[in-house]
Fold this protein.
Amino acid sequence: MTPRITAFYAGLSALLLVVLSVRVMLYRRSARIGLGDAGDKTLIRLMRAHGNAVENVLIGLLLLLVLELLAIAPLWLHLFGASLVIGRILHAWGVSRSAGKSFGRLWGMVLTWLAIIVMAVVALWQSVLWWLTSM
């Protein structure tokens, strides 16, 4: 089985990470900040939007790949993948606009964590079922 669903969401996630990285690079260039953040609040927010996406996308895509290889129904895989990508977009948008509370930050993390937690539980459940039936 070829993991085409994971490939789709990995591609979208990679493009999102590139966009977030380019935003940091362009801001650094315009603000003339080479390394670090120089205490620049906007740069800090842009860096955290990118960093937080990197921190969460990897485990989300890994779990999605595992579930696809376990032949979980495509509808579920698309729900998990869409939740992960939409969550990351919302979070990046929210963090980029405000250092405080925001709709994007809250619902971005809710969608991301929901996808990761449910995928983790499904992966664990599939592992336990396999273990119990192979005894």
Notes: The radius of gyration is 17 Å. Residues 103-133 form the longest helix (31 residues). The mean pLDDT is 95.
